[in-house]
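Researcher: Here's my situation. A collaborator sent me these components and asked whether they could plausibly form a single complex. I don't have experimental data yet, so a predicted model of the whole assembly would be a useful starting point for our discussion.
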Amino acid sequence: MTLRAVKASAPGSLMLMGEHAVLRGQPAIVCAINKRMTIALTPRADRTVRLHSALGEHETTLDDLAPNESFRFVLGAIRACRADFQQGFELDIRSGMSHQMGLGSSAAVTVATLAALAGAQDKEPAPGYLLEAGTRIIRKVQGGTGSGADVAASTYGGALRFHAASLEVVKLPKAPQLTVLYSGSKTPTPEVIAIVEENRKQQPELFDRLEALIGDAVQRAFAAAARADWLALGELMNINQGLMDALGVNNAALAALVYALREDPHIHGSKISGSGLGDCVVGLGKAMRRDWGVPSLAVKVDPLGARVEALP
Amino acid sequence: MTLRAVKASAPGSLMLMGEHAVLRGQPAIVCAINKRMTIALTPRADRTVRLHSALGEHETTLDDLAPNESFRFVLGAIRACRADFQQGFELDIRSGMSHQMGLGSSAAVTVATLAALAGAQDKEPAPGYLLEAGTRIIRKVQGGTGSGADVAASTYGGALRFHAASLEVVKLPKAPQLTVLYSGSKTPTPEVIAIVEENRKQQPELFDRLEALIGDAVQRAFAAAARADWLALGELMNINQGLMDALGVNNAALAALVYALREDPHIHGSKISGSGLGDCVVGLGKAMRRDWGVPSLAVKVDPLGARVEALP
């Protein structure tokens, strides 16, 4: 079979609720956002694989697939399906989001790569496949950690409830508007997870109960969001924020932004988005205030998940 | 019987853990602190009652007991036992603590007044009486609210676990060192309690679970403190802080101080002390840092509860 040229894309994502607890059987709510990762795949006659992005260049072969830190998720996705390929290809990767802000760029690039590789073989990539394979690849690259919630959002689009064990996805009929502030620093997610595990060792039963409470708040939040009750959703986000603080993943910079957002009359609730100890804070609603003294982003939920189309 | 001149005193107090949940059946940990309220009682031949303090002067009679905002707790205590008195008296009230910092000055002045009134009649005030009568008076003056935890600390001294419904008090064998920072503003406790009640109405089952979790953390903290495991106590204070945030009683100023304290190598944990939305933040340990940009207090737990002695 001859490869065809395709363009694939997948949205970035934002965790709305349920971080950490999602790794222990609880549901999470995650949103695809209108910042997409786009990948153009051009077939080659030889077995060379060339990757281009704003982060750099990498050239290897289907046989070697030499590692490269900047392209570890893309290379992980290629490795997962290289048995299907006789021809090499070039991938031109363009990101609509900062990879520093923790907006699910790893999941988006993994899903977009899988979609491009499927599309190049003239297959329509099934969402179930993208979610399952994408989650497996990300966990492998990250040394075992990763809920897959961001992969689910990049795959399906929209705002959705996600269970990690079953990879069950339920979409919300209506998506909220969000305001995102970047705290200016980042602790890598696997490090934050290790810190929470360390805290959990001191008080395992309390942590079980904390995580069950987060799960309970997420279920109630999903029901509130399903009836577009944004006031109730905001209140539940605020409760979830306190529970994340209890897990030990809040800090002074994040707390300051969380409370600054709650001062805004258009914001119904606010919390850390993602694993914590850095990255972003999300407010429910489109804030009135424009200048926050930190990078900010008015984010719309992107209803479109992963897409692939043939290039002429 | 002729009254005798006495001097009574009672320590102020600091809530260490369990605020709000203590009003719903959960235990709290409260500490008497080495800032005392002292009251000298001088008998009079007539039925006049004169009160002096740094807050002002008030003159009334045993028959009138005219209200006065500055002396409402003292007048509440006198009203509770005025049937025992044929003679009036003067009370000279001296406070070793700021009444703005929420260090249990209302409870301390109530307990000290009850102790002085008992001592003037040559009775040794029983702790059970001071706790029961003090709690009743404070709740009456405050329109129903008040756990009595501060009354228990003012009565018994030391660091203790307290249940509001049973007024059960269990002392800790060893008391921790504490650092207290004043946030610069105050919301009256009854107002904060009303805000929590309003939040609770939106999510009653979640609030039940939050408060049960606070109670669980307090029980574990008491066990940790009983074996002088300050690291574990600090960790549990941090968890309790997150749960208070989830109740909705944290704010930007308090959060900033909570995180500033945790940066100090001598502080094992930190949280809001008292009902929240203002007042103080308490750190477990004697902080290394001296200047916090806000009023600070190195506090020792006072092992002595309410005292009364005859004056010559």
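Model: Some features of this prediction you could bring to your collaborator: Residues 16 and 301 of chain B are 11 Å apart (CA to CA). The longest strand of chain B covers residues 28-43.
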